[in-house]
Design goal:
alpha/beta, TIM Barrel, two-stranded antiparallel ribbon, 13 helices
Length: 335
């Protein structure tokens, strides 16, 4: 398994990362679409065998069970694996158990350390920006955790371009650790990050971790235009997500991926993942495999090299149509 450097840090991460969102018996938004404990453990063990030594979770996945199971299953192998987790969303009963205040960031980190059965977190990420809290407060809390040895690197997720740059500027001004990476949604059916966040990552040397690389599952090949989501799949449960993406643009992307997979003798999931792995900005792509079969198929994408004409075709079919000022700039020179 190839490793890539996370942004400007010295940390190496496997180009594929195992997402642990499916670990645990969720009663929240993942209810009914997680792995059984036995299957989840088999997925983790196989991922490690295949050279994936980077695992991403969060304190809210399965209400903390994801972290607990990951800590239990890794056991003595903890230091052989890069563990990333997150905080931001409601993780307790009180008003203080959410957000990016100093109180919650530090408390959430301590709780994650206990659940993960570890004394440090390799990459501690804020799960989404918090407009109610000054960026300086959040950054100072993260810096204190790093100085205390409880966190090695700090990252962010689901940030706007302006908030990301504001945070980088604040970190430099306050002389505290800056974000090393950004975790963002990116796929052939969700390319909004290309507008501002990815250019900022490139300009300032941040690592890029990709979640939902199969476009909420649409690019896996299991869904078809004008047909309902198959029973037992995530999108059969996530009806709002189905309605959002059940549009012509999504199905054009799906058709293009299906055509490329047939042409290359591959699978739709591998093609969609290989498109992302070909992007130089990408540090690692997060795989949310519920089963061993899904994991094996997804990992095979690491060996698939898409020809230039296939990459260009996929880019063209799903190219976002930006509005001002990008259309104005693009008509005169590349932006």
């Amino acid at each position: 398994m190839e490793h890539r450097t996370l942004g400007r840090t010295g940390l190496k991460v496997s180009r594929l990362c195992l997402g642990a969102m499916t670990f645990g018996d969720s009663q929240g938004f993942m209810k009914g679409v997680t792995s059984s404990h036995d299957e989840g453990r088999r997925v983790l063990e196989r991922a490690l065998e295949l050279g994936i030594d980077f695992v991403d979770t969060a304190n809210v996945y399965s209400e903390g069970q994801s972290e607990e199971l990951l800590g239990q299953w890794l056991g003595a192998r903890r230091r052989q694996v890069i563990v990333a987790t997150k905080c931001r969303f409601q993780a307790g009963a009180t008003i203080h158990d959410q957000g990016l205040s100093r109180r919650h960031v530090i408390d959430a980190c301590e709780q994650s350390l206990r659940r993960l059965k570890t004394d440090f977190i390799d990459l501690y990420q804020v799960h989404m920006q918090d407009g109610a809290v000054p960026v300086e407060e959040t950054l100072r809390a993260l810096d204190d955790l790093i100085r205390a040895g409880k966190v090695r690197y700090a990252g962010c997720s689901n940030y706007t371009g302006y908030r990301l740059v504001e945070s980088l500027w604040a970190a430099e001004r306050c002389n505290v650790a800056r974000y090393a990476s950004v975790q963002l949604q990116w796929s052939l059916v969700e390319r909004g990050a290309e507008r501002e966040v990815l250019p900022a990552c490139k300009a300032f040397g941040l690592g890029v971790l990709v979640w939902s690389p199969l476009g909420r599952g649409f690019l896996s090949g299991k869904y078809r235009r004008d047909m309902p989501a198959p029973e037992g799949t995530r999108l059969a449960e996530w009806k709002d997500t189905w309605r959002k993406y059940d549009v012509d643009g999504t199905w054009k992307a799906v058709d293009a991926v299906l055509a490329a997979a047939k042409e290359l003798g591959s699978t739709p999931a591998r093609v969609a993942l290989a498109w992302l792995l070909a992007k130089p900005e990408v540090s690692s792509v997060i795989l949310g495999a519920r089963t061993l079969a899904q994991l094996e198929d997804n990992v095979a994408a690491a060996e698939l090299k898409l020809p230039g004409e296939v990459l260009a075709r996929l880019d063209a079919v799903t190219q976002p149509s930006w509005q001002y000022p990008y259309d104005f700039i693009g008509a005169r020179e590349p932006w």
